[in-house]
Amino acid sequence: MNQSALSLLLTRASCGLLQAPAPDGEILEHILQAGLRAPDHGHLQPFQFLLAEGEGLNRLGTLLAESAKADGAADDVIERAAQLPLRAPLVITVVAKVTPHNKVPEFEQHLSAGCAVMAMQMAAQAQGFGGIWRSGPLMYSRRLHELLGLNERDQIVGFLYLGTPATSLRIPSFANSADFVRRI
Ligand SMILES: Cc1cc2nc3c(=O)[nH]c(=O)nc-3n(C[C@H](O)[C@H](O)[C@H](O)COP(=O)(O)O)c2cc1C
Questions:
Q1: Beta carbons of 157 and 110 less than 8 angstroms apart
Q2: Which residues line ligand 1 (CB under 6 A)?
Q3: Looking at the chain, which terminus has fewer C-beta neighbours within 10 angstroms, N or C?
């Protein structure tokens, strides 16, 4: 049994308080490769990872604010949108790049991209970094999709905030699996 893989699965935890440094180099490459290992029906590779760090975080913030404005948000929401990416040194906008397919519906391609988010978070944790999967109403904004150069079928499935944990990772408590299981 691969004890460390199992322990990673059992202790995966999000970390919202993140600071520099961000994962980079080989560590970041491992994270991206883990994302690309997500299950993928039909090998359609419905993944795109938009990386923002440094000035890119401000650029992403500007696009979020612009989208919020276009979507009719209140001034305080627009202001806050610009600041959102600054909560981590690296934000990966994970996009489901959907290919029309007669056997693989869009939903399955969205699921694949979602699996990539979790795999990347776990790969970050495995290498001593931390992360949190965030969404929010702008994730569904078609204006944001346009501003990011995405097409009408594409769907952002998450903003993965990554960095060095500024607090120790919470040790998750075990749920009672029986509460979630029904034998059929
Ligand atoms: C699709 C999706 C969207 C999420 N969006 C947010 C979010 O916008 N803000 C947030 O604080 N947590 C969000 N979460 C939850 C966190 O990623 C995290 O799972 C939660 O804080 C529980 O922590 P844990 O992962 O350590 O159990 C989202 C999770 C998923 C799966």
A1: yes
A2: 13-14, 132-136, 158, 170
A3: C
